[in-house]
Amino acid sequence: MKMRKKLIFLIVLLFGAAGLFACGKTSGNVMGKADATAESEGYESPEHAVAAYIEGLKENDLNQMVSTFAIEQYVDNFDLHSYLEWMQAYQLQQAQWPAANDITRDLNIEKRKSEIINYIRYQYLALNKISANFNEPQILKTESEQKEFLEQLTGQLASMDFSSIKLNGFIPPESANELYGSEANGENLARIAAEYGANQIVSRMAVIEIGESQYALCFDTVEYEGKWYNLQLGGNLSLLLGIEIMSSGTIPLDIAPEYREELESLIVPME
Fold first, then answer.
1. Would you say residue 184 lies in a domain?
2. pTM of the entire structure?
3. Which domain does 94 fall in, by range?
4. CA 171 – CA 37 distance, rounded (Å)
């Protein structure tokens, strides 16, 4: 247990350094894709929802990645009354609108999709270790600075190659952070699930390889009527670990050799 705590502490420390950079086609598991919807019809488990997203990442298929998230289910089941009870405030531009008619529902759906895509953008930068400050513009006054910046960014984006991605398995969230299994955190997740009109929300930490690099990816997943979807990149477990929000739950696992065996012992292969 002492070694495990030390390992998780190292993961968080490693991410703190890496934070400077950051900020399916899975046959047999998808329950189909409904006509005229942005989301799939759901998956049989949280792990299958995550695996479908990672498969889309591997194939550079944005539609596949987005479709693994709850979109119409999220919009149609969102309980604004519960939201207002908890927040005791409402920001018209940021919050979901009441579904007063078809157009407001459509706008809510597009807003939900854009939020998902933004976090996918952040994850792309984190996985490619592209240095960026999301809160401030980069000042490029001279022509040479502008040219150098565009050449560098274009080269970094062009070099993205996720075709070698391999899903090694999952680290149980309770092993990643003891607070995840606490009564208080369980109550918090239950409250959020009720606000979203969902059965339950659970976090998952997937471990992937890209070439010689290894990463942990945090997800929140959500269940609606027995079907699972991705809810958010990052999410509850990522917050408990102190991961930068703009990194979308992406943790570089540059573990020292003496701790690699301990890390691998935590990984549960996908069934």
1. no
2. 0.83
3. 2-134+145-178+190-250
4. 32
